[in-house]
Design goal:
The structure holds two protein chains of two kinds. Chain A is mainly β. Chain A contains no helices and eleven strands.
Chain lengths: 111, 116
């Protein structure tokens, strides 16, 4: 059983469209990280959020941490083919250094 | 600077054999983690080292799995009597310290293990 549930599992959109990926849990996390992983490579860290209600922007990517620190979302504006990949959320609970990952969302952006 | 490196990138072995997977963390990172990623899943925690000692090995699936980090840098994950269910990508990550729960972990490219 995954501690973090990601939705949707798969997402295929046209270049220029927007998309949102959700990461939900019944547990409280002291921090939550988003990674992007491409085939044959390890996950690459995109952002870390630590404060409830926090919003971080990274160019066309917007990350939000829920007020209760149980959920998060990743929004991509005007998606490009280069955004294609597996997006993973991962949370760390207080006093626990290991990350619990969601199963990931595979995003495909068609040119 | 160099990132986390893992060798080999691919390993094919037969059921029952012994394998070793190596991880070179980012220089200066004191914390090192091993995760396992099965097809279509996110990485699952195996073990974490702070320095030379295994601070948390609660994710190791059974006693066939063992990991060491004798000098506080390079780590080796060892799997005895491999089984087909061990087939997965084994990922290594390191972080500057594990003192804070929001420490940022940096991942290597992984070793793809296939047990025939």
């Amino acid at each position: 059983t995954q501690l973090l549930e990601q939705s949707p599992q798969f997402l295929s959109i046209q270049e220029g469209e927007n998309l949102t990926v959700y990461c939900n849990s019944s547990s409280v996390f002291s921090s939550l990280q988003w990674y992007r992983q491409e085939p044959g490579e390890g996950p690459v860290l995109l952002v870390t959020v630590v404060t409830g209600g926090e919003v971080k922007k990274l160019k066309r990517l917007t990350f939000q941490f829920g007020d209760a620190r149980k959920d998060s979302s990743l929004h991509i504006t005007a998606a490009q083919p280069g955004d294609t990949g597996l997006y993973l959320c991962a949370g760390a609970r207080s006093n626990d250094y290991k990350l619990s990952f969601g199963a990931g969302t595979t995003v495909t952006v068609r040119a | 600077g160099a990132g986390v490196s893992q060798t080999p990138s691919n390993k094919v072995t037969e059921k029952g054999k012994y394998v070793e997977l190596r991880c070179d963390p980012i220089s200066g990172h004191t914390a090192l983690y091993w995760y396992r990623q099965s097809l279509g899943q996110g990485p699952e925690f195996l073990i974490y080292f702070q320095g030379t000692g295994a601070a948390d090995d609660s994710g190791l699936p059974n006693d066939r799995f063992f990991a060491v980090r004798p000098e506080g840098s390079v780590s080796t994950l060892k799997i005895q009597r491999t089984e087909r269910g061990d087939s997965a990508v084994y990922l290594c990550a390191s972080s500057l310290t594990a003192r804070y729960s929001y420490n940022e972990q940096f991942f290597g490219p992984g070793t793809r293990l296939t047990v025939l």
